[in-house]
TrEMBL record, chain A:
Location of region: Disordered: 410-431
Species assigned in the record: Mortierella hygrophila
Cellular compartments annotated: Endoplasmic reticulum membrane
Protein name, per record: Uncharacterized protein
UniProt record, GO biological process: attachment of GPI anchor to protein; GPI anchor biosynthetic process
From TrEMBL, chain B:
Protein's organism: Mortierella hygrophila
The gene coding this protein: GPI8
Record's signal peptide: 1-21
Lineage of source species: Eukaryota, Fungi, Fungi incertae sedis, Mucoromycota, Mortierellomycotina
Protein name stated in the entry: Glycosylphosphatidylinositol anchor biosynthesis
Keyword Signal: yes
UniProt record, GO biological process: attachment of GPI anchor to protein; GPI anchor biosynthetic process; proteolysis
UniProt GO cellular component terms: GPI-anchor transamidase complex
Domain of life: Eukaryota
Automatic annotation (TrEMBL), chain C:
Stretches for region Disordered: 504-523
Protein name in the entry: Glycosyl phosphatidyl inositol protein transamidase complex subunit
Species lineage: Eukaryota, Fungi, Fungi incertae sedis, Mucoromycota, Mortierellomycotina
Gene name linked to the record: GAA1
Organism listed in the record: Mortierella hygrophila
Gene3D superfamilies for this protein: Zn peptidases (3.40.630.10)
Highest taxon, organism lineage: Eukaryota
Gene Ontology CC terms: GPI-anchor transamidase complex
Tagged with keyword Transmembrane helix: yes
Membrane-crossing segments per the record: 20-42, 377-401, 434-453, 465-488, 544-573, 585-611, 631-653
UniProt entry keywords in alphabetical sequence: Membrane, Transmembrane, Transmembrane helix
Length: 431, 398, 656
């Protein structure tokens, strides 16, 4: 295993990543600044709230009574022994971040193996399509993504959910049903939305099975495993905090978007402005909107479960109630797994610019709104919208690129006849 | 029979017959004619005044002074405090910015402290809201509302409604937080008419684009006048350089100038008042709307609205009950307080709404024995209970 | 079917793409011209509007003033006292002043502070006194402040005497809704800075920075007036200074209030800054005067230095301005004395006392071409945005040219039907590795310079100038190594590709002959089997530089318009026009011009302009950053210099 890791390059990449994070953690002011930024830590991922929860838990006060803590009980359990030592906490964060990078590396390795078996697409100049990015590049892109670093230094707990998602995909690609489903369950347990990843992960698990009945059987078994793991996690949580209050505090807060602290998302401003009588209706609309893509996307792109999981993560990161740059770091980390579609993408310049502008302008407009007082909430929300547009264009463009490549692989340019005419942008001109 | 006795008998019979004849031919009108409502007389028996200042904050000193000046005038002309409802933010007299604490003046000369005497503010500070104002006019106040906060008028009441504040086209702001529109006002007056809550109304408004505020009134016997037409501002009259703010508005100032010369016995009419309107003084175009008003303006005494002239009404015995019903505050108390807020209706439990509707239908039977109405009401009550129950069950399920 | 004349979607896109790409560079230059013209037009009278008081509550000048002849006499007496104590050591004069305030009946106190920067150390004592408004709840306050040192570097005698006299006047009144705090600060900016920090509870107690906690307090400060009336004489005019730290501005109503009062109840001639401009009917002269005033404002905003102590309040969301007494003997206007100043200040305080909430009605973003004329953000923002867009257009055209997506179509032949289709992807690969690593290195160098300059290592002979020279050295190393590496690489690739080309042409002839023999009817343009050489590194780097420049200029304009404009105007033409040339001389000239507009180059220009030693300029910039937290140094190090370095590298890269 870990062919990549043995090489010097891998050591350099992971070593630099650790060194960079350790160096940044040396500035506690930076960590607390990032931890307070609304773009990085949301009410459901803030380390400050987690510490409060652990403190309450340690002192025998029910942590979920106060309405401050919205993180899952097992996170409290995880941090309970180590919270007194900042070094251990920081090391844990670094370790988890590295683990995600390592898992991305492993996923790429498995994907490359799959890829080697497929028919190659012919390129311009008659060459065969080259394989996508190396696993190490994918890991590098994740580990040195400014969003990832900011999320890690800001100690956002979205990291644990991200790690569970990455592990689920890795196990799914590897074919380990129970671990894959357990990790989907952990991700679901931590932040609810990843529950829809069960579909692409099942697609990964069954990608080599041709038999329809067997596929169905596997799918049912997987669902059972998922449900079982989830129930077990809940039971464990109950044992830990000895009450079911956490359901309302963790999942209720996620679903009802009851904490309207501004963030990069699209919900808070809506629900602040909305009349109370319309709130339940729009709440349902907004939440269904997040989940509604899972099935159609999985059906249309069932051949590309890795891409489906990227797309679903991007949808979650865009439309959930409390999105943060940590969500972006996950799906931007998953995107290079499908690096062969990059050259088919058309709006990479635009998307990059939109991300850069919103990243710079969000804190600036926040400063103008909250500190200087010359701006207002609309400024900040407008940047949230720009960020959302960037994310949506990225999703549309990457899906287009994937479908275009898919088309290309089925009907290369030489193809004549009906196939060519069926292409969505190939218009026939008769002479 | 002696002739004298016959004569006596005849005289007696004549007397009897005359008495009988008189008693037969004399009807109510002739007796009442002494006081009666002719074209030239308003026929009201009581006077009320509703004085509303819709502004707050120090720099709106003049609006409070406007209202207090008007209060002082109607009080001087005889309307008792019990019949004056004053809505006032009342935040200038004791404002720390007031260089003369606990006073309000309406003139640079500061001869008269409007706040000096007995001033009764009925709705104060944040109580001055559109909702309270409309509830006050239409009488749909909560049960526990004290007498001083009720407009207990009947179909024989003449009401002066004076409003001042910051307004615009067809709206008037209430304390920078909300606004009342000309439609709201028109609806409120129509409800007052339907509920026989007034005999005549004089509606005066001093604000920017004031005349637009009375364009949506369509109920009879309402006379309206405003300080400025559409797209015109109303201006303040002058500043007091010691207090450091404008102390009165032009429209109010010049109206007061007329009213100051009026006493309770005065025969000055509204026409006299309206004739003094002068664009050059006001720097805006004041307006009068009299198309809903039946009497000619030159026969309407100023004291019909600004004063309190007690007319007496004779009624036949059976009518006594009726007018009592109208006027009896105890019965007004039990008048249903409609809850217009849909949310409040949703959240009220079925039990409550049931008892509420029972009580109402009970009252209804006493007051009005019309069968079809009763049935309609019962149907309404049953429906509302069912709907309330359904909502309750539904909401608890959700 | 009659579709002969109709173009396919792909063909339409191709035509559009070619059109756009061919016109975009021209368009972007036109936009730069439009932007420049617009900027120059801003001071013109037709672009500005008359100012007006927006906040209803202010009621400027509507109340009589109570500052009377006795108060004036008191002020004159205080003037003598202040003159007497001015030459005492900080602590003694502060205590003397404290006693004076106490004698009026105000609660007064002093505050010690120490502040060390990397170059020097300051120590001083502030005096402050609070007039508690008798009928208020004490939750809000106004500040009147003056520092011992006027902007003329003389003693601020009249201003401090005025504070005392006003304290006496206010003590008589009972009409205040806000407490009034009088602050006499030591030093230049650092004294008031220390007081403000302590007032807002974020005082520090380290060795380098020490601010004594305040013993006397009041409510939240709503607004502040800073007084600068140097000397003991009369004045010709009153100047208003309003530019705060990092270009932040007070609400325009602050200026409008003074303006109205100066035209009414306390007539004085009012002007912006300390310049007296004669009124003329000459359009050109008026324009030039307005231009000068605007440039003055923009200069201070761009470097981020406040034009007076009022600028420190703005950091705490307190609207403030400095009133400056201009004494210019021989100027035609009526001179005014302390009596007039007292009336004006009392009236201004009365006006601010009327406030119900923070000033918010009027503008926070404006340019003033005169004390009574403003240009709003809607008018001055577009040129910066246009500049940003022209950068983006240039970047886009380079990006488009580095691919062949919008320019070429491939065609598919089926029997007698030819289908033109868009290319699925660019045949020219775009490699960002060189560009992004160069940019990354430049940014690291910039950041390293920043930390080098702002950290003290305690070495012998350590000076900011030495550090700067060191980082310039590092930068030149970076440029040299990047450029030489690129040239070497190109040469290797070239020699390799000539070999490949020879092979490829051999293959091509074979392939084409076979295909033409197999398909005679194929006479259409077919690109399917071609692969283009990757785009040159300099194109990628230039695209990156232009995109980042657009990003910087537009985002910075939201924070500090003047800084954004200065940067934009400075870099737009060089960054857009410069590219590696086949003639080395041209490239080197371009590099030299870029070096001239690099931070060290600009520093040299500034030192020449102000006839100062470069090291003085540098230590001034450092001090401004360390004391006031201006953004000039961070912007230069983290943003401006990296871009400039990358641009220098770009023009020196090999052409192909």
């Amino acid at each position: 295993m870990a062919k990549g890791l043995s090489s010097n390059n891998a050591v350099a990449v992971f070593g630099t990543a650790v060194a960079l994070r350790l160096a940044l953690f040396q500035f506690p002011a930076l960590a607390s600044l990032l931890g307070e930024r609304v773009e990085i830590s949301t009410p459901v991922t803030s380390f400050k709230r987690l510490s409060e929860g652990v403190f309450l838990f340690t002192n025998g006060v029910p942590p979920y009574d106060g309405g401050v803590v919205h993180q899952a009980p097992l996170l409290l359990g995880l941090f309970y022994p180590i919270i007194s030592s900042p070094l251990l906490v920081n090391l844990l964060y670094i370790l988890i971040d590295l683990a995600i990078g390592y898992m991305l590396l492993q996923i790429t390795a498995i994907k490359d193996k799959d890829y080697a078996k497929e028919k190659k697409i012919t390129q311009y100049g008659g060459k065969e399509e080259e394989p996508g990015m190396s696993g190490l590049s994918v890991a590098t892109l994740y580990l040195f993504n400014p969003y990832t670093i900011a999320s890690c230094i800001g100690r956002s707990t979205i990291l644990y959910s991200n790690a569970a998602v990455a592990a689920a995909i890795w196990m799914g690609m590897k074919g380990n049903k129970s671990l894959a489903m357990f990790n989907v369950a952990v991700a679901t347990y931590l932040s609810l939305y990843p529950s829809m990843l069960i579909i692409p992960v099942i697609l990964m698990l069954t990608r080599k099975i041709d038999d329809n009945d067997l596929t169905k059987k596997v799918a049912i078994r997987c669902t059972g495993l998922f449900a079982g793991s989830l129930v077990a996690l809940f039971a464990l949580s109950f044992v830990l905090v000895n009450s079911w209050d956490f359901f309302g505090s963790v999942y209720g807060t996620i679903l009802t978007v009851s904490d309207l602290t501004p963030n990069l998302g699209l919900c808070w401003y809506f629900f602040i402005e909305m009349f109370d009588q319309f709130r339940p209706f729009f709440l349902v609309v907004f939440q269904i909107h997040v989940f509604i893509f899972a099935v159609p996307v999985s059906i249309k792109l069932r051949k590309y479960p890795l891409f489906v999981s990227f797309l679903l993560c991007a949808i979650m990161g865009t439309f959930k109630g409390y999105p943060s740059v940590g969500d972006a770091s996950l799906y931007l980390g998953l995107l290079p797994l499908s690096s062969e579609i990059f050259k088919y993408m058309r709006y990479s310049f635009l998307v990059t610019n939109l991300f850069m502008y919103s990243t710079l302008l969000a804190p600036i407009f926040w400063y103008l709104w909250v500190y200087v007082g010359s701006g207002n909430a609309n400024f900040f929300y407008a940047i949230g919208l720009v960020y959302g547009i960037g994310e949506i264009i990225l999703m549309i463009d990457s899906t287009f690129a994937l479908l275009r490549r898919d088309f290309e692989s089925q009907s290369p340019p030489e193809t004549t006849g009906q196939d060519a005419a069926l292409g969505w942008d190939r218009e026939v001109v008769q002479k | 029979m002696k002739p004298t006795s016959i004569l006596r008998y005849i005289a007696l019979s004549v007397c009897l017959a005359t008495t009988l004849a008189i008693s037969i031919t004399t009807n109510k009108d002739d007796v009442e004619g002494f006081f009666a409502k002719s074209k030239s007389q308003s026929g009201h028996t009581n006077n009320w005044a509703v004085l509303v200042c819709t502004s707050r904050f120090w720099f709106n000193y003049r609006h409070i002074a406007n209202t207090l000046s008007m209060y002082r005038t109607v009080k001087r002309l005889g309307i008792p405090d019990s019949n004056i409802i004053m809505m006032l933010a009342d935040d200038v007299a004791c404002n720390s910015r007031n260089i003369f604490p606990a006073t309000v003046y309406n003139n640079r000369g500061r001869h008269l402290d409007l706040y000096g005497e007995n001033v009764e503010v009925d709705y104060r500070g944040y109580e001055v809201t559109v909702e309270n104002f409309i509830r006050l006019l239409t009488g749909r106040v909560a049960k526990e509302t004290p007498r001083s906060k009720r407009l207990m008028t009947d179909d024989q009441s003449n009401i002066l409604i004076f409003m001042t504040g910051h307004g615009g086209e067809e709206f008037l702001k209430f304390q920078d937080a909300e606004e009342i529109s000309a439609y709201d006002l028109g609806d409120a007056f129509q409800q007052m008419y339907e509920k026989k809550r007034y005999n005549e109304i004089l509606f005066m408004i001093d604000t920017c684009q004031a005349n637009t505020m009375y364009t949506k009134i369509h109920s009879p016997n309402i006379l309206a006048t405003g300080s400025s037409k559409l797209n015109e501002s109303s201006y303040s009259h002058h500043d007091d350089p010691d207090i450091g703010v404008a102390v009165i508005d032009r429209f109010t100032y010049y109206i007061l100038e007329v009213l100051e010369k009026v006493n309770m016995q005065s025969k000055a009419t509204l026409k006299d008042l309206f004739d003094t309107y002068d664009y050059n003084l006001l720097q805006s175009t004041p307006g009068v709307r009299d198309d809903l008003f039946e009497r000619p303006l030159d026969e309407v005494l100023l004291t019909d609205f600004f004063g309190n002239v007690q007319n007496v009404e004779l009624t036949e015995s059976e009518e006594v009950n009726n007018s009592l019903t109208e006027a009896d505050p105890a019965l007004i108390d039990s008048e249903p307080m409609f809850i217009e807020d849909p949310q409040a209706e949703n959240t009220s439990s079925p039990k409550q709404s049931a008892s509420w509707s029972q009580e109402q239908s009970h009252n209804f039977e006493i007051g009005n024995p019309d069968q079809s109405q009763t049935w309609r009401f019962v149907a309404f009550a049953v429906l509302s209970v069912t709907m309330g129950g359904a909502l309750f069950v539904g909401s608890s399920l959700v | 079917m009659g579709f002969l004349s109709r173009l396919s979607k792909a063909q339409r896109q191709q035509i559009f793409g070619r059109f756009v790409l061919s016109w975009m560079p021209t368009l972007s230059y036109i936009m730069v011209a439009v932007s420049f013209f617009w900027l120059l037009a801003l001071p013109h009278q037709d672009y500005s509007k008359r100012t007006y008081v927006s906040e209803n509550a202010l009621l400027p000048g509507s109340a009589n003033v109570q500052f009377n002849w006795d108060d004036n006499l008191a002020a004159e007496a205080y003037r003598d006292t202040v003159q007497r104590i001015a030459s005492l050591p900080s602590i003694e004069r502060a205590q003397a002043l404290e006693l004076q305030f106490a004698a009026i009946g105000l609660k007064s106190a002093t505050q010690n502070y120490t502040l060390s920067t990397s170059t020097e150390s300051f120590h001083g004592v502030n005096t402050y006194a609070v007039f508690y408004a008798p009928r208020s709840d004490g939750t809000e306050a106004l500040v009147l402040s003056a520092s011992w040192l006027s902007r003329d570097k003389t003693t601020n005698t009249n201003a401090i005497a005025m504070l005392l006299a006003l304290g006496k006047t206010f003590k008589r009144g009972s009409h205040f809704s806000k407490d009034i705090i009088f602050v006499v600060s030591d030093g230049e900016a650092e004294g008031l800075q220390a007081w403000l920090k302590a007032y807002h509870g974020n005082e520090e107690h380290t060795y380098e920075r020490y601010e004594e906690p305040l013993r006397v307090r009041s409510g939240a400060i709503q607004a502040a007036l800073n007084l600068d009336f140097a000397g003991t004489g009369d004045y010709n005019a009153l100047g208003i200074f309003f530019e705060g730290v990092n270009g932040q501005l007070p609400n325009l109503d602050m200026i409008n209030t003074i303006n109205l009062i100066s035209m009414g109840i306390a007539p004085v001639e009012l002007t912006l800054h300390d310049e007296l401009v004669p009124y003329t009917d000459n359009m050109t002269k008026n324009y030039l005067n307005s231009l000068r005033k605007m440039l003055y404002q923009m200069k201070y905003q761009a470097v981020g230095t406040p034009t007076g102590n009022h600028g420190l309040y703005l950091k705490y969301k307190i609207d403030a301005i400095t009133l400056y007494g201009i004494d210019r003997p021989g100027w035609h206007s009526h001179r005014f004395n302390l009596f007039r100043v007292g009336a004006l200040l009392e009236s201004a305080v009365r006006s601010l006392n009327n406030l119900l909430e923070h000033l918010h009605q009027s503008f926070f973003f404006y340019l003033l071409s005169d004390v009574r004329r403003y240009t709003s953000i809607g008018l001055y923002m577009p040129p910066v945005i246009i500049l940003g867009v022209s950068f983006i257009f240039q970047a886009l055209s380079l990006w488009g040219l580095s691919s062949d997506l919008p320019l070429e179509l491939e065609s598919i032949v089926e029997g007698d039907t030819t289908i033109p289709v868009a290319l699925p992807y660019s045949r020219r690969s775009r490699n960002f590795k060189v560009a992004s690593s160069t940019m990354g290195m430049a940014m690291v160098t910039g950041a390293a310079t920043f930390f080098l300059l702002t950290t003290e290592f305690g070495l012998v002979g350590e000076s900011p100038m030495l550090k700067l020279v060191a980082s310039v050295g590092v930068c030149s190393m970076l440029v040299l190594s990047a450029v030489s590496a690129a040239h070497v690489r190109t040469r290797i690739i070239k020699s390799a590709s000539t070999v490949q080309k020879a092979r490829a042409s051999h293959n091509d002839t074979k392939g084409s002959s076979s295909s033409s023999s197999s398909n005679q009817s194929d006479n259409t343009y077919n690109v399917a089997d071609q692969e283009l050489t990757p785009a040159a590194d300099w194109i990628m780097l230039k695209t990156l530089i232009l995109a980042l420049s657009a990003l910087i200029v537009t985002t910075l304009s939201a924070l500090n318009f003047s800084l954004a404009v200065s940067i934009g105007v400075l870099i737009v033409l060089p960054y857009m026009a410069f590219r590696p040339s086949r003639w080395t001389v041209v490239s080197i000239i371009e590099a030299l011009i870029l070096l001239a507009i690099s931070p060290p180059g600009l520093m040299m220009v500034a030192s020449w302009w102000y006839a100062k030693d470069p090291s003085e300029v540098l230590s001034w910039v450092l001090k401004e950053y360390e004391i006031l937290g201006t953004w000039l140094l961070p912007t230069a190090c983290f943003v401006y210099w990296p871009l400039n370095l990358a641009a220098v590298i770009m023009v020196l890269l090999p052409v192909s």
